[in-house]
Amino acid sequence: MSVGGSQPFGLNDVTVTNIGATADADLPAAQTLTFNPRINSAELSGDDKIAAVSSRVVALDWELEAGGIDLDAYAIITGYTVASSGTTPSQQDELQFDGAKCLPYFSIFGKALGSDCTDDIHVLIYKAKCTQMEGQLKDGEFFITKCKGVAIDGGTHGVVEIIQHETAASLPAV
How far are the Cα atoms of 30, 70, 92, 158 from residue 146, in angstroms, in the given order? Predict the structure, then answer.
């Protein structure tokens, strides 16, 4: 039996989790989670007609945008480590990007509530890799974290799981 009827509205929450599921971070002010299945397709033609068409989902292209910057989320996406020092009121967190480091796989979990806020949709991307990241400090504007990449089939959950809940639920936790 299908839950049916959900009309997702907005973007309620996005978290990123390292591939070992030992750390996660909530993206501050999540604005966009875009996902597009990458489909390989081919046609077999002969005798002046198309005889067969094959289409397969082989990966998933994704993009994230969030207001602000969360160094813990950046660390999960990039595989670097946040170094903390000092004591209040002089604490400092530092994330240093070094060259020639391979970026890790990680998971992206997104949630949108239904139009009446009692149901929801979860988009669970289990094996994502960042291929592009950007941010901009600009006069009169808030910092927006932007990144995009590719997700592949991790074996158990495919390239993406879309789960509709009749009653809204929290995103999976580490």
Answer: 10, 12, 23, 24
Residue segments in the chain with a per-residue pLDDT below the cut of 70:
1-5, 174
Q: What is the DSSP letter of 154?
A: -
| Domain spans in the chain, listed from the N-terminal domain onward | 8-165
The listed CATH number (2.40.30, 3.30.420, 3.30.1490, 2.60.40) that belongs to domain 8-165: 2.40.30
Count CB atoms within 10 A of the CB of residue 50: 10
> pTM, whole model, 2 decimals?
0.90
Residues 6+ apart with CB under 8 A from 87: none
Q: What is the DSSP string of 32-76?
A: EEEEEEEEEEEEEEETTEEEEEEEEEEEEEEEEEEEB--HHHHHH
Which pLDDT tens digit goes with each residue over 15-57? 999 999 999 999 989 999 999 999 999 999 999 999 999 999 9
Residues found in the chain: 174
d(CA 132, CA 34): 14
Query: Hey, which bits of 74-117 come out as E strands?
Result: 82-85, 92-95, 106-114
> Could you give the CA distance from residue 59 to residue 124 in angstroms, rounded to a whole number?
14
